[in-house]
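anyone seen this seq b4? input:
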Amino acid sequence: MSRKIIKARRIIRTALEADPGFRMTYEANIAMLIYDDQVARREKNQRTVITNLNTNEGCSNIADRILTLIFSQ
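predicted toks r here
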């Protein structure tokens, strides 16, 4: 892992530890992405990307969506 990534992760970790509200915002956004996805799955909503968390592919899909949520602008 590059030194820049290590430094960036340390900065983010420190910011999350220092500001519980900041951490709660990230946690809430991640939780809602998973929640909305699973509600759509139960309701068989075809307009939404639906992830089967019982499969490797589904877990990889949700992980990718979480990373995109966190790191895209």
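The chain has a mean pLDDT of 85. Residues 20-71 form one domain. kinda curious what u guys think
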